[in-house]
Amino acid sequence: MHGGMSDLPITFENATVRAGAITILDRVSLAITQGEPTLLIGPNGSGKSTLIRLGMGLIEASEGRVRWGGRANADSPRRAMVFQHPVMLRRTAADNIAYALASRGVPRAEQASRIDALLDQVGLKHLKDRPARRLSGGEQQRMALARALACDPEVLFLDEPTASLDPASTKAVEDIVRATALRGVKVVMASHDLGQAKRLAGDIVFLVRGRVIEQARAEQFFTSPATQEAKAFLRGDLVI
């Protein structure tokens, strides 16, 4: 983990994101703190991906603000992100990791051992010399996780990383997420899968139409939701 100042908590203060006349996030106020994974759930179009990008610092709020450890500067090596459809470099799996390590300033002499450790961590060491773009979908997602972890992040944002994966690949990714969280990395993950949220979440942020409707510990949210929207969503009703 990095030394020095922390990016946590990440606080959203009446953060609004607009695209033209469309409001994507509407006056979101919440704090992301150290601890177990935070899962963002809600219907399609609820703003989960936009909230992840805002927290990562990839976009700016149209109104309100985001602060990282009390600071307004969005630039930080302490955060990493994995997208639903990650882009693989036209290189081997090992070289994808090497690129991430080099960009972080890791000396070349240290890279080989770090590459092996990271690929072993995600179960891909035996595929280190395979072109990354020839890996399966599930392998590419694990490769993207290894590449993100090469940056030694304090906070790891995941945008529906298992949305198009089969059950075995989903389990492999979830196992990596658990192990990553146990090492002290704060995981913030958007998911459309309620079963996955139950398996992974320490706390839940439930969004509808760009607003945070409910934030609670996972066990409380799933057993005693406080809002009618959450109750309907958990029943499987359409919430729009």
Explain the layout of strands and helices.
Elements lengths: L9 E10 L2 E11 L5 E4 L6 H9 L6 E6 L10 E4 L10 H11 L4 H14 L15 H13 L5 E5 L7 H16 L3 E5 L3 H7 L2 E6 L2 E7 H6 L4 H8 L5
Parallel strand pairs: 3-7, 3-8, 5-6, 6-7
Antiparallel strand pairs: 1-2, 1-4, 8-9
Helix pairs in contact: 2-3, 2-4, 4-5
Structural notes for this entry:
By secondary structure, the chain is of the alpha/beta class. The protein has a domain at 10-89 and 153-235: Rossmann fold (3-Layer(aba) Sandwich), CATH 3.40.50.300. 35% of the residues lie in helices and 24% in strands. The strands form 2 sheets. Strands 5-6-7-3-8-9 form a 6-stranded mixed β-sheet, sandwiched between helices. Strands 2-1-4 form a 3-stranded antiparallel β-sheet, with helices on one face. The protein is globular and about 55 Å long. It starts with 9 loop residues before the first strand and ends in a 5-residue tail after the last helix.
H/E series: EEEHEEHHHEHEHEEHH
Number of strands: 9
The amount of helix comes to 25-40%
Find the CATH topology of the domain at 10-89 and 153-235. Answer: Rossmann fold
Mean pLDDT: 95
Major sheet details: 6 strands, mixed
Q: Give the distance, in angstroms, between the N- and C-terminal Cα atoms.
A: 40 Å
The structural class is: alpha/beta
Q: Could you tell me the strand content as a percent range?
A: 15-25%
Q: What's the CATH superfamily of the domain at 10-89 and 153-235, by name? A: P-loop containing nucleotide triphosphate hydrolases
Indicate the CATH class of the domain at 10-89 and 153-235. Answer: Alpha Beta
**Number of helices, counting only DSSP H or I runs of 4 residues or more:** 8
